[in-house]
Design a protein that fits this description.
mainly alpha
Length: about 180
């Protein structure tokens, strides 16, 4: 039985070798045909007057390869343009997103300053807060200053009255001195 298995293994190995050789020879044959066509194309291109029998075959092959090359280059160009357009669209999308985020950031900053101002005003107006104590002392100082100003204004009025009284007394004194001088003469 071992000989039968070994024979089967050898047969499959031979078959694989034959298949590999046949596929290799088929590949070599297709490569040689392709090279043969290319060499004919190159020779047709290099010579100005190709032979009449191979002229039609070469022209068909040449036009086939030229069309194929043209299609491939057009496809590559379209793919490159699509890739460029994709990058451009991605760039424009990122730019729009950045602008939107910048505007949101600015509005958030403005809202933050408004809220901070409101918070400071609320802390000043709240009794028991440090700011309200200062506000009360400022009110007391303001009241004391207003009272002092009113006292000084009253004193100024009294002083003005005293000046007028003093001037009146000086005038009377001068009149009395004149009367006494006339009487003494």
């Amino acid at each position: 039985m071992s000989t039968v298995l070994s024979n089967n293994k050898e047969e499959t190995g031979v078959r694989k070798t034959l298949l590999g050789a046949s596929s290799a020879s088929a590949t070599a044959t297709s490569n040689s045909l392709r090279n043969d066509k290319l060499s004919r194309l190159n020779s047709a291109r290099t010579s100005n007057a190709p032979s009449a029998s191979s002229d039609t075959g070469v022209n068909h092959a040449e036009s086939y390869f030229l069309r194929r090359e043209h299609r491939l280059s057009a496809r590559r160009k379209a793919e490159e343009e699509a890739a460029i357009n994709d990058y451009k669209k991605m760039y424009e999308k990122a730019l729009a997103t950045n602008q939107r985020l910048k505007s949101r950031l600015e509005t958030s900053k403005q809202e933050l300053t408004v809220i901070q101002d409101q918070l400071q005003r609320a802390q000043k107006g709240r009794p028991g807060a440090c700011g309200s104590n200062m506000l009360e002392t400022e009110k007391k100082e303001s009241w004391a200053l207003k009272k002092r100003i009113s006292d000084i204004e009253e004193q100024l009025k009294v002083k003005a009255d005293l000046k007028m009284e003093n001037q009146r007394l000086k005038d009377e004194n001068g009149a009395l001195i004149r009367v006494i001088t006339k009487l003494s003469k």
